[in-house]
Amino acid sequence: MTKPIRLLGLILLVASCCYWSACDPAPTPPADDNDTIDIEAEIDSLMSQLTLEEKVRMIHASSAFTSGGVERLGIPELIMSDGPHGVRHEHGRDWIKDEGVRDSSTYLPVGTALAATWNPELGYAFGSVLGSEANYRQKDIILGPGLNIIRSPLNGRNFEYLTEDPYLNARMTVGYVKGVQDQGVAACAKHYVANNLEYEREMVNVEMSDRALREIYLPGFKAAVQEGGTYTVMAAYNKFRGDYCAHSEYLLDTILKMEYGFDGAVISDWNAVKNTMEAVNAGIDLEMGSDLPMLATGNVDYSKFHMGDTVVTLVNNGTVDEALIDKKVRRLLRTIFRVNAIGERAPGAYNTPEHQQVARDIADEAIVLLKNEGLLPLNEGETQSIAVVGANATRKHAGGGGSSQVKAYYEVTPLEGLQNLMGDKADISYAEGYVVEKGGGSNSDLIAAAVEQVTQADVAIYVGGYIHGYSDEWNDNAYDAEATDKPDMLLPFGQDELIEAVLAANPNTIIVLMGGGPVDMQRWQSQAKTIVQAWYPGMEGGNALADVLFGNVNPSGKLPMTFPVKLEDSPAHSLAVTGFESLEQDYTEGIFVGYRYFDSYEVEPAFAFGHGLSYTTFTYENIAVEKKDNTVVVSVNVTNSGDRDGAEVVQLYVNDNESALPRPAQELKAFQKVELTAGATERVEFTLGEDAFSYYDDTQGKWVLEHGTFTIKLGSSSRDIRQEGNIEW
Ligand code: BGC
What we know:
Elements: H1 9-16, H2 33-36, H3 39-49, H4 52-58, E1 61-63, E2 66-67, E3 80-81, H5 111-116, H6 120-136, E4 141-142, H7 166-181, E5 186-192, E6 205-207, H8 210-217, H9 219-226, E7 232-235, E8 239-240, E9 243-244, H10 249-259, E10 265-268, H11 276-281, H12 292-297, H13 309-316, H14 322-338, H15 353-366, E11 368-372, E12 385-389, H16 414-422, E13 427-431, H17 444-455, E14 459-465, H18 495-505, E15 509-514, E16 530-533, H19 541-549, H20 571-574, E17 584-586, H21 595-600, E18 618-628, E19 631-640, E20 646-656, E21 667-676, E22 681-688, E23 695-697, E24 702-704, E25 709-717, E26 720-728
Parallel strand pairs: 3-4, 4-5, 5-7, 6-8, 6-17, 7-10, 12-13, 12-14, 14-15, 15-16
Antiparallel strand pairs: 1-2, 8-9, 11-16, 18-19, 19-22, 20-21, 20-25, 23-24, 25-26
Helix pairs in contact: 3-14, 4-13, 4-14, 6-7, 6-15, 7-9, 15-19, 16-19, 17-18
């Protein structure tokens, strides 16, 4: 391929070696090619040389994961890879597996786990690993982060997303995007927007108020663009107010490009473009997909895509203005320059111990201690026999879940993690307890065997919950997986019965749950002394879990979503008028998503948003709330009042005492994770701008800040408020 355009590859090469972990001081990021060439001038020059046919070749896929390039002018293809929590294995240009390629990668904890750290620096570290490994594998775009709001516990893809809260969503997203892009690789904020369930995701139409759109569903994307500077955004499959997201001029042009100032490329979700004229007119810049019927024939003709040859014909016969195509091509060229697809790419690194350490650090901070009545931490010297029960103790999850699947270099299971930590210091037995099979119920023989094991042990550790489906095994990708939703919030495989039996046989049983979100625990929650949420914790998850259980790591994870007692308590199921299996999804709960609903409607959750226990205690004292110009400065003393070092997520919620439109009882507007040695005190300070007090008034079509009294609440969770203060605007 000719290369008429030269970038300073050497600078990029040197800079790419700057891998850093979350704890290191801020590094010098790799040099940005914007500094070295005038990208817009280069784009102008290329635009004047491109033929119509070449331009059209660039706006649709050239294989399952590449956009079209123009060899004559040295314009490369953009090479993409899923996914949100690990660079996906090679599957050939058209999904044919490339055997024998060294493509086992670092497998990071999933999105909900990352969000549970409430640590944006770890978001950055997470993104850095992905960017670095993408470079190593010659990829230009990481198809992540996934930042759809967690609206219902049933969405099969919640594990890939982050949270129910728009503020936490924005903070974690920005870290992730910057982490990826500082490596010279593009992030792709997906799925824009309102892809909040998987049921008929290519047909569902979502209706919601402008207020819900602005306050809940858009802030993460806005932050990805305006603070993270994401180079690409992926348009979702679903319709929004009757238009496919990939065809929506309102979403793509009016909001994303014009209002938010997004100047990168919008990529369609795979096969999300459905119509040539609508796509040409709207702000979708690149049609991606993999025509499945054509794939089956082994002969895919990408020029037949909606944004393929038809566009050439339509321009030539005067139906389409070529200027519309130019706008798309310019954005794609801008992306190509930004990611250094032209010139020398940074080498990146692959599966280094440093990357594995990031996976470990995130898992350590992601695990949430939901309940603990004296069982944890376990004592290494005193715990002589441990009965481990449950199929998730030995199950690996990396390969499941759909497009986010990762071929993990390794994956330490919970049982292995316990064995690694304890060696021969304890006698560790294992009983499967239940069988992972489609539609499987409880198995009395396995329950009896598990009961026998736990009866003889000092302590039992139950590891169950959901699983990541394996599409090869089960057509429906069961449970936590793309393209399917859960039928209910109940534990699969008859686990309730098993847990009840195990708890009855040995009350010193620790319940560890894996999965992307909550399960209905009503049958045994009150009997269980200790419950731990471990998500899908990545390749180092088993080691991290063992460290948390034995107190080598003091847990600091906090729930990024409310865990309801039962499904019907969740607003998408109690307030929304359309059933979940309806092609018309009307989000009638509006802004009352997650804790905004539970707190305003006084519904008791099983475990509240922001909840997570520690082995130490924190006290909050001396709140000060002060207005300084157009900001409010809030400060508080936080003391580690226990006898172990630990980290606390200090959460700041705002309540508007009186407003013209109904507002939630409280909204998260700031947080800080502080590490405190035992006995130490830190004054934690927050500065709030006007946006922390405003709401979107859809009767006026703008954000408004009403005068009046606001209460600032500081706490350890949304339901554990420790200090309050008022401020007048
Ligand atoms: C998913 C996207 C993914 C794409 C490519 C689609 O089915 O919705 O999230 O990036 O496939 O694998």
